[in-house]
């Protein structure tokens, strides 16, 4: 097995200079993300519905691909398992798209459970690495994640109408701020 040769320093430098020359696009993209995040936070119900519809559409597409896959690999065996999985995906995605608020409720509950479980695992990982330095930060982040999951679960299903929109808005703002400052850092290096 051969691996591609490492890029020469001049090629990497040229690519970095090309990125630095476009620092303004990163700044503009960051501003756009922040604005979109603020809009999402101002309209969390609409953002939640849009997110649920998007997830439902992705599940439908995944199911259709799974059904096509079932017919493409018929000779491998287990055709009906592949087909059934694809059909279930299509049905689940269609149900989410038919009733996005109910879909948002299910997705919100899954997020809450996932956060709680992740928090427990992170706490265990932090405690397990206790002789090393910094283990307390892992435990602390695990407690915060567990707390977020517990809050979501405790307030479910009422919070289902805004959690996805809230997460979308926060994600867009955080991504926007990061992209904005990345662009500014590129500008300083380009000058």
From TrEMBL:
It comes from Xanthobacter agilis. InterPro entries: Acid_resist_chaperone_HdeD, DUF308_memb. It holds the Pfam family DUF308. The chain crosses the membrane at residues 23-46, 52-72, 79-98, 104-125, 137-156, 162-186. Keywords: Membrane, Transmembrane, Transmembrane helix. This is Uncharacterized membrane protein HdeD (DUF308 family).
